[in-house]
Amino acid sequence: MKDNKTSSILGLAADSVCTILLSTAFSLILLDMLGHNVDYGQCLALSAISLLLVLLFTRRWWVFPALLVLAALTLTALIYVFRLYDEMYQYGLGLYEWIISGYPITDPYSYNGSIMLVRLVIVLPIAAILFLYFRKLFVFYLQPLAAAGVLYWLWKYDKDMMVTVLVLMLVVILASMGRFAGQRINRKFKKSGQAAVPLGMLQFHALLIGAVVLIFAFAVSPKENYQWRSIKLVRFIVDIGDYYRYSQGSASGSGSFSLGDAGYEGNLGGDIELSNDVVLKVSTNIPVLLGGSTYDTYTGSIWKDSGNNGNFRFYSGFWQGKRRIAYNLDKPLGGSKAYDIYRELTKRATITITPYFSSRSLFSCGSVISVKTLRDSEINAYFNLKGELYTQTTPWSANSPYVITTTVFNRSKPCFDDLMVKLEDIAYKKKDKNLADIKLNYLQLPETLPATVYETAAEITAGIDSPYLQAVAIENWLSDNFSYTLTPGDVPEGKDFVQHFLDTGEGYCEYYASAMTVFARCIGLPARYVTGFGLKESVENRPGAYTATKATAHAWSEVYFMGIGWVVFDPSNWVFDETVTLDPIEEKAPAPVFTPPVIDFETPVLPEELLPDLPENNLQLSGKNNITLLAVVLFVIGVCALYLLIRFLLSYLGSGNYYNRLCRRYKNRSDRLDAAYRRLIKQACFLGIRMEDSDTINTFAAKVDEMAGNTVMTRVCTPVILHRFALADIQNNDVRSICDHYANVEKKLRKELGPLKYIWHRFIIGRM
Predict the structure, then answer these.
(1) What's the rounded Cα separation, in Å, for the pair 690 and 130?
(2) Which residues have C-beta within 8 Å of that of residue 585, sequence separation ≥ 6?
(3) 475 within 8 A of 481, measured Cβ to Cβ
(4) pTM higher than 0.90 for the full model?
(5) Where are the beta strands (DSSP E) in 463-592?
(6) CA distance 762 to 768
(7) What is the CA 354 to chain-centroid distance, rounded?
(8) Tag placement on the chain: N or C end, fewer CB within 10 Å?
(9) How do residues 698-716 score in pLDDT, each as one tens digit?
């Protein structure tokens, strides 16, 4: 009796784990199709939570509804106690509009947990159906058939997640094989009167063996080059090491950039002569100052780092809290009213940066959200608590673009100062848990700082209550009362740099930024000194195209405001709308062609010979040749039928929705246009019109139109020609026109051929 109970518990545990793993696999596919960029860790967590809810409901029918009622009562009590009626109404209204938009991946709800609730609603029915299958409707042969169909579909349409789904499905199949074998053994034992084998124990042990074997086979064992197969596993181990070093106070990372690379002196000040050598090519919707290094300690003659600023992998789950602190992703404080003002004060910037030199520093600004390659692959970047972004060991290669997505304050906006003061009034009423550490690191001043510096800062801000307006007053005072020059002379030995600037009244960006930072600290405002590059408009005069040279190397200040975050102040008043100055040789030289870096952070593909062995090994458990042969035949027929069904459904149901699928799959219009055009070429090939080597887009479209007796193909392909050869902007209607034409042709084919002939010609023989 005890063994039966143990087996029952183990069986439930094994079924639960199998449900979670298989739900993770299917959720990865479905969420990706719906446009949600999630990894297997999130899907695993969502599947586990979904199964927990299913278990609660299946144990006692009233448990789950009771939990919902309890949660509703708790939420109602919180709303009543804290008087959150207006906030909840506005939030609920916005959430409703956000969900019905059909593509809920935008601020603010994507970053406060609502997106996870949407994903949970998607994953919950998947987990419920799979749990029902494992507990009540278990048929082993469905698993290899379904796995083969899903994997083939992924191989055709989405190879990126194929390995992850394969591993998850193999673990489940191996566990189910134990249960399947036990069922067959028990049938024989029942005929002979022997005691039944406990299925739960067989299934659970098979699950453990499958998990261990697959982990070591596909994730841990070295490849031929003696590198570990699973990059994610390696990074997980590295994260643990980083966590230990940070807890011991010995973790500090930074990039390799300094103003000395551009021709500045080692100490602050002195005459400088800068060249016009190009260092960065930038494409951005908003011109910004790109920071490379940040300093927190002022000695009177130089800026330097204080020490343990941390060293955290940007995309690590370990450090999301640190990332929110470093990039103000938890700001502003003050609820929806504060956030509404914050959205007016900020802009989302997408910045493509092509460096002309190798460096570990990745230039960035503002509240960094992502750092990726041009191919939309996550870069294995690191950051520290100063907000610096960099590579850990290998420098980022010259001529290799990367894309920064960030949120920046738009201080050029009319009424920015008034809105900022309103935001201060709201945010300053909330407790900023990071403020103590910020003050500890960014209020430091040397003991030798002259009293006149303190007095000057106090005079500038006298009578001003707003911290933000105090910083503005300092910035304006420095801009109005000092002269910009690259030849201010040497700073006398032993004299404080800021005091020297006050005495001489002239200098360049280092002088202005140092004075701004020191003055802010004198009146109690946390501030830091930042170096990097300013941008100038490129000589080719394209919208959004900017260039940085050694002559545009720059320094500025960032001031921290409680509950709001870091804001840029540049008293030397950088001007973005001037054309960059280049040396004559560089102006005549053709623009270099850059090759995007191929940085493969994906899990390597498993050996191909593992896949075809799977059905044979599973089916041989029956022990009878006739059953094995029948299963093989059924397997082949099932795979073919499943493939045809998937293809037919995608074509029949999906052609009209092809534009929406493109929008979810590709983030920019250029990729959508190329994908839609490639689909048209394949469709024409099916109709017997092949694109020859001598064909241009125009001539090929003309051939298609000649066959169709119209000019639709030429019309819809015109945007492709303009984009590829005239660099014309792409409109949504351009892509939609191609998709509509493709859908109309498919519709005509189905109508003319009928369902059976359509399937035969379109998917089996592949030609008319």
Answers:
(1) 45
(2) none
(3) no
(4) no
(5) 483-484, 506-507, 527-533, 536-537, 545-549, 553-561, 565-569
(6) 8
(7) 20
(8) N
(9) 888 888 888 888 888 889 8
